[in-house]
Write a structure and sequence with these properties.
With 538 residues, the chain is an alpha/beta fold. Helix content is 22%, strand content 18%. The chain starts with 6 loop residues before the first strand and ends in a 9-residue tail after the last helix.
Length: 538
């Protein structure tokens, strides 16, 4: 496909009538960086003192330096500036897009827009949008043949939950700020760029993906950018410059490239919760499994507010972990557990030294109850697993080591998270990752890197055999096991010359030690780990 010259676009936050400040800045940017094709304005374009400045543009005395496209009113005071809800030219080079719709430029660029703030009522006021507005806009766009998404989405409010899985939004609480309807709209329209304002803050979120890793065909990423108000005294960014080739003209492989810092979709969980809530209100018992990756799965099924199951008058009871089909070496209450290896006991998990460990401080994180894999863990157990990971990372770093964690959910019945320390001066995290990938390639094992901000429950369902690696840098590798798999693969990679250089210890059965030696190692580990052991303080 022949290269297409990108469009050069400026996006702006709340103008609030400060037209001279805005257009003066645009002229300065163009003078320095060359011409831009358009200016897109979100938030409040007009303010309480707009009349004097605006009249000069209305009469043609002054003119916007480039084609400018604006959203409609966000309050009753400025409704009168927008005479036609379907959109119109307000002044030369300044166009009101309309209440909601799609702007398609001659270049092929597609800009979806929604004016106003969220309303709980129907019909919505002239300065607001309702659930019906969003539903109609979605229906219009999603009915387009081969719809893949839009290039740009313009809204004034932020989408609720946009900060989930992402970098901090500073003083803005993204769990409370913004509109849930816009979250739903963004999730459906998959904009490559989404601009919003109103919060007088600048926030450029890490890009997020629009597909489920390893389960759906890769799609383009989305970027959310919130912009501050023009001329703010805090010098927060209110103008954002970028170049974009319309999606329809891009090479498909180039379009779906995933930047290294791409995160999970922040809206997927809220979408599923909304679906579940809607189904419940309609008294439809739709199984949550229709959503292959249900991020709220760990929280259990949603119950009626009276504490009873539908069609059952018995009070709900706490769900117990599944019971082993036979003796289990790792259920803490089991007589088979070698308790002399236990070094820390939390509320839901415990730590134990590995029997026949690669090293004396090779440790396991294990759930106290019987769970087969991380995917099966309820939220309270996951939370404590995370606390143990953090404690071990700090502990090993204090000893000049980094840890490598792996899980083999294959021919095992109780979850074992193997945590092996590697001296910092022995090799880097990148060296370790490359060793896993190289060994996997030699054995025709498809070991894929999954995004740092993703959750394993989003790439594997309960009962799926898999092998998983996690470095203390946050990097993760995953293999879905579909056939025979070498049981000692994880140990073999770490024991190899490239990492720990102890290949003779790859098989744990060859590393057996006397019980007294094991007990001594556990005693030393317990003593050294004590300052980092949260279970002794909680």
């Amino acid at each position: 496909m022949a290269a297409v010259a990108p469009l050069r676009v400026l996006a702006c936050g709340d103008v609030e009538g400060r037209l001279e400040a805005l257009f003066g800045r645009v002229r300065a940017i163009q003078s320095k960086s060359g011409p831009f094709d358009m200016l897109l304005c979100v938030g409040n374009f007009f303010g309480s003192t707009s009349e004097a400045e605006w009249s000069e543009y209305c009469t043609g005395t002054k003119k916007a330096p480039i084609p400018t496209y604006v959203l409609g009113a966000n309050n009753q005071e400025t409704v009168s500036y927008f005479p036609d809800v379907s959109g119109c030219e307000l002044a030369e080079n300044i166009t009101y897009l309309g209440r909601r719709g799609l702007y398609s430029g001659a270049s092929g660029l597609q800009i979806a827009y929604l004016s106003g703030t969220e309303s709980q009522y129907e019909p919505a006021p002239a300065y607001s949008f309702s659930e019906k507005d969003v539903a109609e806009l979605k229906a219009f766009l999603l009915s387009t043949p081969n719809f893949k998404g839009v290039d740009i989405l313009l809204t004034s409010p932020w989408p609720r939950y946009v900060g989930t899985f992402a970098n901090s939004a500073g003083e803005i609480d993204t769990k409370k700020c913004g509109s849930k309807l816009i979250s739903d709209l963004a999730a459906s329209l998959k904009p490559r760029y989404h601009f919003a304002a109103l919060e007088k803050a600048y926030y450029e979120r890490l890009p997020y993906r629009n597909h489920t890793v390893l389960q759906e065909t890769p799609k383009h990423v989305s970027r959310f950018i919130a912009l501050a108000d023009v001329g703010n005294t805090s010098k927060k960014k209110y103008l954002y410059a970028f170049s974009i080739v319309p999606m329809s003209l891009m090479d498909p492989a180039e379009l779906v490239k995933q930047p290294q810092d791409t995160t999970e979709n922040p809206y997927r969980k809220s979408q599923k919760e909304a679906q579940k809530s809607k189904a419940f209100l309609c008294a439809e018992e739709e199984a949550a499994s229709q959503f292959f990756f249900n991020l709220s799965k760990r929280q259990g099924k949603k119950r009626p507010s009276d504490g009873k199951e539908r069609g059952n008058s018995q009070p709900k009871q706490a769900k117990k972990p599944p019971q082993p089909s036979g003796p289990c070496w790792f259920c803490l209450a089991s007589p088979e557990v070698e308790k002399h290896l236990v070094v820390s006991i939390g509320t839901h998990c415990y730590l134990a030294l590995a029997k026949g460990g690669l090293l004396p401080d090779h440790v396991l994180i294990l759930p106290i109850g019987h769970y087969q894999s991380v995917v099966d863990l309820p939220s309270e157990v996951v939370e404590e697993v995370t606390k143990y990971k953090s404690a071990l990372k700090e502990f090993f770093r204090s000893k000049g080591k980094r840890y490598v964690l792996f899980e083999r959910n294959y021919k095992s019945q109780h979850l074992q998270l193997q945590v092996i320390p590697v001296p910092l001066d022995r090799c880097t995290a990148e060296d370790i990752k490359e060793s896993f990938i190289a060994q996997a390639q030699k054995q025709n094992i498809e070991l894929l890197e999954i995004p740092e901000h993703s959750d394993i429950t989003q790439v594997a369902r309960s009962g799926t055999p898999y092998f998983y690696v996690e470095l203390d840098t946050g990097e993760k590798l995953f293999h879905r096991i579909r056939g025979p798999f070498p049981l000692h693969f994880g140990r073999a990679v770490l024991a190899s010359e490239a990492v720990l250089a102890i290949p003779h210890r790859a098989d744990w059965r060859r590393c057996a030690a006397e019980r007294a030696v094991e007990a001594a190692h556990a005693r030393f580990f317990r003593r050294d780990f004590q300052p980092f052991d949260f279970s002794l303080r909680d």
